[in-house]
Write a structure and sequence with these properties.
Length: about 350
């Protein structure tokens, strides 16, 4: 099926209208008309070829909310007309230990999990194309139910990446009452990290390079805010934090944050900059038996758990709606940290 989309044809070309081919839905497939798609910094890293091996054309977008237009004969959970969501994965091997444990993002199958865009396509052919498009066809297993009310749906879209990528490590490292949790970088991921860590009842400390976001961070869920260029303010938190989630999209000095961890504390990196961070100093790690870890998005079951948790507590992203025609302007603002706190594309604008 021919489908309207926006694509980058190379690392140096802007995103422009492009027509892609979607597969005909099979018995286990759900087809949806895309209504909203969030703009993740990963979309920009990928479109601009900042990561190795990006295939082109590249149609980004993995924070998708849409209306079901068709379900295959074997689909059980989803009905036509309902609003559903799709995140960063559209397939995985389904039989490896990781998949069986609901950790499809760590799939050990021959191709790993299939990313919603730039992914490997079963049977060969082009790479997968994401949510900057009019419609998508996805195996039912990778379709999420949405319990938020209709008028919140644009602000639900960012939960599909920014929400789950912060929820999964916060749960894994047990952010909860009595724990002090740091969130570094108050962008799309970081602002969700603040909301979710607060909802999990941790004591939350926000770290930002932008003094202008300090007051906002308190509204978003922080108990305390540190402007990370202020060395004296940073030093006050030395050895105080149980867990720090670093969402920064650019290479930076990790020692700043390692020093703030308690003994046995963990700094988990979810930001995926184009260039490596400078190597951390070893003594900050070994003297406190501290760890540096990484975390990738989250499994399908935990994504549903996060969506249900957010629906029950009325948690959504803070968004600015844009037209698809303004995507390049949005990328320019994202690079300046000028987003409060997630752009969401109104996909109706693709149809005009
Ligand atoms: P974003 O909205 O652009 O937020 C990134 C934030 O990092 C900015 O708002 C800024 O916060 C801070 N920052 C930017 N440049 C900086 C610099 N040079 N030094 C220090 N701080 C800087 O991006 P996002 O969509 O949240 O994504 C963040 C990163 O996570 C990206 O690299 C993305 O690819 C990655 N990601 C990873 C996963 C995963 O599975 N691990 C999933 C999704 C995204 P302040 O203004 O508060 O300092
Ligand atoms: Zn993302
Ligand atoms: Zn697998």
């Amino acid at each position: 099926m021919k489908t309207a989309a926006y694509a980058a044809q190379s690392a140096r070309s802007p995103l422009l209208p492009y027509t892609i081919e979607r597969r005909d839905p099979g018995p286990r497939d759900v087809a949806l008309e895309i209504v909203y798609c969030g703009v993740c910094h990963s979309d920009l890293h990928a479109a601009r070829g900042e990561w190795d091996g990006v295939p082109y054309p590249c149609v980004p977008g993995h924070e998708i909310v849409g209306r079901v237009t068709h379900v295959g004969s074997a689909v059980k959970r989803v009905v036509p007309g309902s609003m559903v969501a799709v995140g960063c994965m559209v397939d995985s091997c389904r039989v490896c230990d990781a998949c069986k444990a609901g950790l499809e993002q760590y799939c050990d199958g021959p191709h790993g999990f299939t990313q919603t865009y730039n992914g490997w396509v079963k049977g060969g052919g082009e790479n997968t194309y994401g949510g900057y498009s009019a419609s998508i066809v996805v195996d039912e297993h990778f379709v999420l139910n949405v319990k938020h009310n209709e008028r919140q749906l644009a602000a639900v879209a960012p939960l599909l990446c920014a929400g789950i990528t912060t929820w999964s490590p916060l749960r894994h490292w047990q952010a909860s009452a009595g724990k002090t949790v740091g969130i570094v970088g108050i962008g799309g991921l970081g602002h969700m990290g603040l909301k979710l860590a607060r909802a999990l009842e941790a004591h939350v400390v926000a770290f930002t390079t932008s003094a202008a976001k300090a007051k906002e961070a308190l509204r978003l869920g922080a108990d305390e805010v540190v402007v990370s260029t202020d060395q004296a303010a940073l030093a006050k938190h030395s050895g105080r934090l149980d867990f720090i989630l670093d969402t920064v999209s650019a290479s930076h000095d990790l020692d700043t944050y390692i020093k703030l961890l308690k003994r046995d504390g963990t700094l988990a990196l979810v930001g995926a900059p184009a260039t490596p961070h400078p190597s951390p100093a070893i003594f900050n790690l070994l003297l406190g038996r501290r760890s540096i870890a990484g975390s990738a998005i989250g499994g399908i079951a935990e994504t549903q758990e996060m969506l249900d948790f957010c629906a029950a507590r009325n948690i959504v992203s803070d968004i600015e709606m844009i037209a698809i025609q303004d995507i390049e302007k949005a990328y320019a603002r994202l690079l300046k940290g000028d987003v409060r706190y997630r752009f969401v594309i109104d996909m109706q604008t693709l149809r005009r």
